[in-house]
Amino acid sequence: MTSEPIAFWRTKSLQEMSSEEWESLCDGCGRCCLVKLEDEDTGKCYLTRLACSLLDIGSCRCSDYPNRKAKMSDCVSITPEAARTLSWLPATCAYRLVGEGRDLNWWHPLISGTPDTVHLAGISVRELARSEKGVKGSAMQRYIIGPAS
Ligand code: SF4
Ligand code: SF4
After folding, report:
1. E strands present in 8-62
2. Among 32, 34, 43, 63, which is most buried by a count of CB atoms within 10 Å?
3. Is residue 5 part of a domain?
4. How many domains does the chain fold into?
5. Is 59 helix (H, G, I), strand (E, B) or coil?
6. Whole-angstrom distance between the N-terminal and C-terminal Cα of the chain?
7. Residue with the nearest Cα to atom 2 of ligand 1?
8. Which pLDDT tens digit goes with each residue over 54-97?
9. What is the SS3 assignment for 38?
């Protein structure tokens, strides 16, 4: 008799996961790597379709994940606490879903068995994003796609 592997995200809290489990929970959507702009007057945060210059838009993965904090000082680490409190983390984010006691969606690589489904389902930013490289700060607001939360 064969047994199914245990779906760790259904049995463990975010805090209980090993670092390998934690990393595998990221669906690779790249949504958290889109540039956010804050309105200084209102404090409201807006999402743009500009991707961090370190994001490989084809794969929607960070091109230098181990050194990301050294290269991008404003890169925000997703932690259990951040998953609970970051208002701009997308509703589809696996850390947010699991932190809220919900299950992963069919397109998550841990469910589908392939990283392709996050793109096929239109969840990733592959078709939406363009790199922030070469876009001046004053021109960034042209790329706003909506509120960040
Ligand atoms: S939004 Fe969440 S699941 Fe998507 S890339 Fe960012 S951390 Fe990973
Ligand atoms: S440094 Fe990497 S992980 Fe951080 S926002 Fe940029 S692409 Fe995303």
Report:
1. 34-38, 45-51, 55-56, 61-62
2. 34
3. no
4. 1
5. coil
6. 47
7. 93
8. 999 999 999 999 999 999 999 999 999 999 999 999 999 999 99
9. strand
Q: Residues 3, 114, 28, CA angle at the centre, nearest 5°? A: 120
Question: Is-above-0.85 flag for pTM?
Answer: yes
Q: What pLDDT score was predicted for residue 1?
A: 60
Smallest CA separation from ligand 1 atom 8, residue: 26
The ligand minimizing its distance to the Cα of 32 is: 1
Q: How far is ligand 1, taken at its centre, from the CA of residue 26, in Å? A: 5
Q: Is residue 139 part of a domain?
A: yes
| Nearest atom (ligand 2) to Cα of 75 | 4
Conformation bin of residue 79: beta by default, left when phi > 0, alpha when psi is -120 to 50: beta
Q: What is the residue range of 77's domain?
A: 11-147
